[in-house]
Design goal:
The complex is a heterodimer of chains A (about 190) and B (about 120). By secondary structure, chain A is an alpha+beta fold. Helices cover about 30% and strands about 30% of the residues of chain A. Chain B has about 120 residues and is of the alpha+beta class. Classes of the chains: A alpha+beta (about 190), B alpha+beta (about 120).
Chain lengths: ~190, ~120
């Protein structure tokens, strides 16, 4: 009982501060207590449905997620992701939508056999003060073992919350303004 | 065009640089007639502001004449005389929509840096 209570309390804490984040409690489909878990939230001054629609077409993910090179849609619920790995390598896996409530939630997980087992969830809620939509993203992933795993950890674990924050920021910039800000002077140097 | 460029700590030079182009449909190109030297220009000159790169163009408080506008520009036309504020604002975020331009959420390309220093992002 005690253990259960403690687990519940931990799960209730924001992901960024929970002592032992629980992927299942965060609504993620990944069967590993040791999975790395990252969660961030941002408020975007656009309607919920519009944000959901953009995200739900996973082909858009590479426009704001720096590590994702390409996403190929296989069917309504299945897509193939190509992601930058350590040292210029590429990792690929199929991703399956596990929950889909239009305008509210999208959750996904990697299909069996992925090098990096992972699961993600994005929730869209109306901001109570009319500031648009509160977008919360949680990602869990299980770094592979061995040499590749060590290299992977070096690249992705360095500052995963900063990376997640940055990606959500890019999503916000793209949705609010239609572009990403840049200090580049020439169009060819712009993101 | 000609522009005053930063070339490292306390080293500036007037150079020929690429002409500006309309990249975003809401862009406008201004022919600068005069530019103020801001207190923060001195910080840039003395290299107190991280992120400066050789060749960066100085002069962010200027006035001039509109010479070209993008297809979605509604309030400006070629020939208008304008004064440009130092903040760069997206016009679309909550703060910009409420005339709180200096708190713009979107225009700072180094947002993470400012967030780390100040606890919150500010306009570019």
């Amino acid at each position: 009982m005690t253990e259960r209570t403690s687990r519940t309390l931990d799960a209730d804490a924001p992901l960024s501060s929970a002592r032992k984040p629980d992927p299942a409690a965060a609504g993620l489909d990944i069967a590993d207590d040791d999975a790395e878990l990252v969660g961030r939230t941002v408020t975007i001054n656009r309607p919920r449905q519009e944000l959901y629609d953009f995200w739900r077409d996973f082909r858009h993910l590479p426009t704001f997620m720096e590590n994702i090179e390409d996403v190929i849609i296989l069917d309504d619920n299945r897509s193939h992701w190509i992601v930058q790995g350590p040292a210029g390598s590429e990792l690929e896996w199929d991703s399956i939508v596990t929950e889909d409530v239009p305008g509210e939630v999208i959750a996904w997980r990697s299909a069996e056999g992925a090098t990096v087992e992972n699961s993600g969830r994005v929730e869209f809620r109306d901001s109570p003060n009319g500031r648009g939509t509160i977008v919360s993203v949680t990602i869990a992933y299980k770094p592979p073992g061995g040499k590749l795993g060590k290299a992977f950890a070096k690249v992705f674990r360095r500052e995963p919350t900063i990376q997640a924050r940055q990606e959500l920021r890019r999503f916000k910039q793209l949705m609010e303004t239609g572009e990403l800000p840049t200090a580049a002077m020439l169009p060819q140097d712009m993101p | 065009m000609r522009a005053l460029t930063w070339q490292g700590k306390q080293n500036v030079r007037v150079d020929t640089v690429p002409d500006p182009q309309i990249v975003n449909p809401r862009d406008a190109i201004i022919r600068v007639t005069s530019t103020a030297i801001c207190g923060s220009d001195l910080h840039l000159y003395d290299h107190y502001i991280p992120g400066m790169k050789d060749g960066d163009i100085l002069g962010h408080e200027f006035m001039g004449e509109v010479v070209e506008v993008g297809p979605e520009v509604k309030k400006l036309k070629v020939g208008d005389k304008v004064v440009v504020p130092f903040t760069i604002c997206c016009g679309q975020c909550y703060y910009c929509k409420n005339d709180l331009w200096s708190a713009c959420d979107n225009t700072n390309p180094n947002a993470a840096l400012l967030e780390g220093i100040n606890g919150h992002n500010a306009a570019g």
